[in-house]
Amino acid sequence: MTVIARFAPSPTGRLHVGNVRTALMNWLFVRERGGKFILRIDDTDLERSTNAYEEGIKEDLGWLGLNWDESFNQSHRFPSYEAAANKLREDGLLYACYETGEELDRQRKLQRVQGKPPVYNRAGLSLTDDEKAAFEAEGRKPHWRFKLSGEVAKWNDMVRGEQSVDTSSLSDPVLIRGDGSFLYTLPSVVDDIEAKITHVIRGEDHVTNSGAQIEVFKALSEHLPTFAHTPLLVGKDGKGLSKRIGSLSMKELKEQGLEPLAICSLLGKIGTSDPIEARPSMEVLKDEFSFDKIGRAPARFDEDELLLVNSRLLHDTPYEAVKEHLESMNVGGAEEFWNLIRSNISKVKDAAGWSTVIYSPMPGRIEAEDKAFCEAAANALPDVITPETWGQWTSTLKVDHARKGKTLFLPLRRALTGSDRGPEMGKLLELLGAEKAKARLLGETA
Ligand code: GLU
Question: Which of 184, 197, 198, 214 to mutate to test the pocket of ligand 1 (most atoms within 8 A of CB)?
Answer without folding.
Answer: 184
